[in-house]
Specification:
- The protein has a single domain, classed as 50s Ribosomal Protein L17, Chain: A.
- The protein contains five helices and three strands.
- It has a three-stranded antiparallel sheet.
- A hairpin with a 6-residue loop joins β2 and β3.
- The longest helix has 31 residues.
- It is flat, with a radius of gyration of 21 Å.
- It starts with 13 loop residues before the first helix and ends in a 14-residue tail after the last helix.
Amino acid sequence: MRHRVSGSKLNMPHSQRVALMRNLARELFEHGTIVTTITRAKEVRPFVESIITKAKKASILSSEIVSKGPDNAETQELKSRNLALRREINRNFNDRKLVRKICDEVAVKYRERNGGYTRIVKLGMRRGDASEMAVLQLIDNEERQNKKPEKKPEKKQERK
């Protein structure tokens, strides 16, 4: 029985599953969108969102460090916390350039957003094995603000 067991094993051993999650997340951060199966997209989504949350905290700390100015005890504490968060992210990718991109470019877009950084769009069946395919995308705030539909006043119909 699988009571209270979250996640899917994706029919592979733990080490392969972790490698798959890291590679999918890396591609998502590098390209902004990936095409994969629905089950893989649903599995990688919480992993990506936790990384973005850590990066948001790191970027907030970076801006606080800049605003504090010269080195003092409080600035040193902020720097050490910022470094710890960046190392937590780096543990998954082992690529400092990617971590810098995530913390300084990607996370800044989501400062005002509380979760829901990704979107899964179903594509249909894959030719060959008929597995359901999906697109996993990072949501851009600028994109959402530009596409907000304007509300048109509705005309009430009079009854006769």
